[in-house]
Automatic annotation (TrEMBL):
This is Luciferase-like domain-containing protein. InterPro entries: Bact_Lucif_Oxidored, CmoO-like, Luciferase-like_dom, Luciferase-like_sf. Coiled coil: none annotated. NCBIfam families: oxido_grp_1. One of its GO terms (cellular component) is cytosol.
Amino acid sequence: MTDSVVSDPSDSPADSRAARSRVPFSLLDLAQVGPGETVAQSLAHSLRMAQFADRTGYRRIWYAEHHNMPAIASAAPAVLVAHMAAHTSRIRLGAGGVMLPNHSPLAIAEQFGTLAELHPGRIDLGLGRAPGGDQATFTALRRTPAAAENFPGDVVELQRYFAGSSVHGVVATPGAGTGVPLYILGSSLFGAQLAAALGLPYAFASHFAPQALERAVELYVRDFRPAPLPDGGQTEPYVMAAATVIADDDADRAYEQLRSAKLQRIKFLFNRGRHLSDADAAALLDGPQGAQVDEMLRLAAVGTPDDVLGRLDRFAERIGADELILAPLAGDREVWFGTVEKLAPSV
């Protein structure tokens, strides 16, 4: 699954922009804390993005649970969803995702059930089984890595709470009867298998782990088992894929932002308990560590807006995606927000 980040010469601006009407665009917001920013400033940027996306046709925004990461402020997705929902009117909001092994299904059912009661028809719940942090995070959360083994059962338990069933003698209040839609997140075949078995939508984390994307989507569609819907119908396969994006009218500037993002990822992945300087990170970027980061971002769509739109169109068509979740990566806030503006479904 290879594709150059350089646009196809046959792409025209009209063709690229037409792609926006074919595959819905959504956003993934990690509430990144940029250099020199406070958490409060980061969250203010997230609100600005949510309000813009609400006006310009993006389908949904998801917030991903991460812990013990100073550059990411999305540790509490339910709180972010509540704040953003209170300041928007149309766009769907949710977790992309809640790392379910970190929590009891009842607590999540109550949190997102409350959100669904406050903002009916606008709340999503994406679920992952990764820890969203390190071993210290598990200890601080009073959990163990073994909790991930219960993930399939925990998902089913959540479904029962939202359907209004009593589980362990407990009914989720709020939560019961809200039918909050669930999405299975994954970067391997496990999530695809579980989503297919439960008849749920599947979202693949191709923005940082593209290796198993094609195989996972193929397995999901092949093995999908329809689940009953309240209206008497049945669910159908629904494929969502995340895509890292950096769009700027100056393509060189966009690629500079990609390189800066790779350097930051090198520092995060390979610091080995010591502070890596920019020079240290640049040296690693030219070695095996850089090759690993290059692979993580192999599917990044970078360049002018028309370059990026053309690439996203081809990406969605190639894997049969029903929806793309865009993850703006630029560290420069002007380029970061500009990416969201320039790729907006309607302006």
